[in-house]
């Protein structure tokens, strides 16, 4: 006779929270909960049941009260990025608009391949009270609602229609979030009645479990093919992406590059794979890159792309390389490894690079390496002049240089969207590994401050004596600033640089560069903005409990930054920068943007012809 397994009666919500609290991961030999807690805004769709369960676990799964659901998702994404995808946070929102607000942040996590667990309210499964508050009604499909929109931006999606389902659904969601290939947001819809329904769960379901990130061994034949191709290279180059850090392969990348003498360029996501002073770090590549990296990319004959999805900003919309350049794609994901007819090495970057080092015996011509280093030296001179504080209009670059010179090497820098990602990527000199978070996978305005809060939560757990530094423009600040208040409430100090250029200046620059007149980007050029009123960002920040000041120039900003470093709470520094002058003008490759084929404007027509004249270099996939 088989003994009946021991069970415990719990609601669906209670079982979800208890399960999450029992899941662990080992990081650097230390066992810690894989779920670091979560962010929540409660409503009628999640407060009575899930809220009750979270209250009972508030000491082990802290719930941070959000100000905006989208901001919660950004914070969760930044937290996961800081932990190199080895830990995640949940986000919980009520049914209806609360959940809908998470769509953008789920898309950001999906684009950046970041784990995030979304526990969202849903309509009643019984439908007895239908239609309920905030429910969308689709007349021909009563099962269809807002939560279905998350199918497109989730790596795992489920709607719980019976309490027993979580026995299968939760492990599947967790395994997805921790899988190096499928990593991304997991969405679980929780109907309001099902959250409170009970079930006799097996006690074994809640036993502690230690998870590990899978390392996929690359195929020996693919490694051998890569070595054979590398040995034919006269001008090899490595593109190091964000996957290098997620794999923990920084040391292996460095060893392989040094052993073979191969120049390394970085993507935006891989911006801190090497410190700026490393002799093989030739700089960032692509549209927001450096003259040095782009110069060698034009000549490289074999390109080893490691842990990158080869976004258009990396490849210059596939014009940055020789038409006959050969690519080797090292990536744990087949989809990324095989892009543009690359020779694939599908597997973990750490293992693959180690095998290339052991099996190589290849050395790049020293003349090629020296040529790359000479290009980098010229770029360093340009950056030094670009960030120099002088008698000229204040710029993003000067602000970046002032902070770069005064920060601690282990301070974490956060930026996103607008002009700042390009300026930070081009001008920031990396002082230590893994210290730069420029969100450009989804290029999402509003990530800066919310992401800074999430990054600071993670940093306070790992390196509490360091600072999180946020660069944001006035446009992103106005879009989403409320997590400045969150950082004050939770005592998670940030230093926020608000660089005010009077609107969406980088898009105004793109508008002008394509022959268009300034329109609806700068506040001064918005016809419907009939009352030109400036925002007092300092006063606004102070109203949320921060310390804040406004400075007139980058020299004063440097002094204010020292005060911010010494402060015990979030500190906001505001400075105006010029909307037209001071942009980094070098280091850009071609970037494909849609321009009008016909126009009544001669300047637009001329700009279109100029754009199309440079298309000849665009790689067609071979």
Give an overview of the whole structure.
This protein is an alpha/beta fold and 622 residues long. It folds into four domains: 12-211, Thiamin diphosphate (ThDP)-binding fold, Pyr/PP domains (Rossmann fold); 220-378, Rossmann fold (3-Layer(aba) Sandwich); 390-576, Thiamin diphosphate (ThDP)-binding fold, Pyr/PP domains (Rossmann fold); 592-622, no CATH class. Helices cover 36% and strands 18% of the residues. The chain contains 24 helices and 23 strands. The strands form five sheets. The protein has a six-stranded parallel beta sheet, with helices on both faces. Strands 14-13-12-15-16-17 form a six-stranded parallel beta sheet, with helices on both faces. Helix 13 (334-337) links the parallel strand 16 and strand 17. Helix 3 (69-82) packs across helix 18 and helix 16 runs parallel beside helix 23 (554-566). It is globular. The model has no long low-confidence stretch (mean pLDDT 96).
């Amino acid at each position: 006779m088989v003994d009946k397994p021991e069970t415990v009666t719990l609601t669906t919500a209670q079982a979800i929270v208890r399960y999450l609290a029992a899941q662990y991961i080992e990081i650097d030999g230390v066992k810690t909960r894989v779920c670091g807690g979560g962010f929540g805004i409660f409503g009628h769709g999640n407060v009575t049941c899930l809220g009750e369960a979270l209250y009972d676990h508030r000491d082990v799964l802290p719930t941070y009260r959000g100000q905006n659901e989208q901001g919660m998702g950004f914070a969760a994404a930044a937290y996961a990025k800081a932990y190199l995808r080895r830990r995640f946070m949940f986000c919980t929102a009520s049914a209806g608009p609360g959940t809908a607000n998470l769509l953008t942040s789920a898309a950001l996590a999906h684009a950046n391949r970041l784990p995030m667990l979304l526990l969202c309210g849903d309509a009643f499964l019984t439908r007895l009270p239908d239609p309920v508050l905030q429910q969308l009604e689709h007349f021909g499909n009563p099962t269809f609602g807002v939560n279905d929109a998350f199918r497109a931006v989730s790596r795992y999606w489920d709607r719980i229609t019976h309490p027993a389902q979580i026995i299968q659904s939760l492990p599947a969601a967790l395994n997805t979030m921790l899988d190096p290939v499928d990593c991304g947001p997991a969405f679980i819809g929780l109907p309001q009645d099902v959250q409170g329904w009970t079930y006799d769960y097996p006690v074994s379901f809640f036993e502690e479990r230690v998870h590990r990130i899978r390392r996929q061994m690359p195929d020996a034949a693919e490694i051998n093919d890569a070595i054979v191709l590398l040995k034919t290279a006269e001008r090899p180059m490595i593109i190091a992406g964000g996957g290098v850090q997620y794999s923990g392969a920084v040391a292996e990348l460095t060893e392989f590059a040094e052993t073979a003498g191969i120049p390394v360029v970085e993507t935006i996501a891989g911006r801190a794979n090497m410190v700026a002073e490393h002799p093989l770090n030739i700089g960032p590549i692509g549209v927001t890159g450096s003259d040095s990296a782009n110069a060698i990319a034009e000549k490289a004959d074999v390109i080893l792309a490691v842990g990158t999805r080869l976004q258009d900003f990396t490849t210059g919309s596939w014009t940055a390389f020789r038409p006959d350049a050969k690519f080797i794609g090292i990536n744990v994901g087949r989809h990324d490894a095989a892009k543009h007819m690359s020779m694939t090495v599908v597997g973990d970057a750490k293992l693959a690079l180690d095998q290339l080092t052991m099996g190589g015996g290849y050395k790049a011509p020293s003349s090629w390496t020296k040529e790359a280093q000479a290009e980098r030296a010229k770029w360093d001179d340009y950056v030094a002049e670009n960030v120099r504080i002088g008698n000229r209009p204040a710029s993003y670059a000067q602000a970046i240089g002032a902070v770069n010179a005064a920060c601690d090497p282990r301070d974490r820098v956060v930026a996103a969207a607008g002009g700042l990602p390009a300026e930070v990527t081009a001008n920031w000199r990396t002082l230590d590994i893994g210290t730069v978070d420029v969100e450009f996978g989804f290029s999402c305005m509003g990530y800066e401050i919310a992401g800074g809060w999430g990054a600071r939560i993670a940093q306070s757990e790992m390196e509490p004596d360091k600072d999180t530094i946020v660069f944001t423009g006035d446009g992103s600040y106005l879009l989403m600033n409320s997590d400045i208040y969150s950082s004050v409430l939770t005592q998670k100090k940030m230093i926020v640089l608000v660089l005010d250029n009077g609107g969406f200046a980088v898009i105004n620059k793109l508008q002008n560069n394509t022959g268009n007149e300034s329109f609806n980007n700068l506040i001064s050029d918005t016809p419907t903005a009939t009352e030109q009123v400036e925002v007092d960002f300092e006063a606004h920040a102070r109203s949320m409990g921060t310390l804040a000041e406004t400075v007139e120039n980058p020299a004063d900003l440097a002094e204010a930054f020292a005060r911010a470093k010494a402060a015990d709470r979030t500190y906001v520094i505001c400075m105006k920068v010029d909307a037209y002058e001071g942009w980094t003008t070098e280091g850009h490759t071609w970037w494909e943007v849609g321009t009008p084929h016909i126009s009544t404007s001669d300047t637009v027509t001329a700009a279109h012809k100029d754009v199309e004249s440079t298309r000849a270099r665009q790689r067609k996939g071979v």
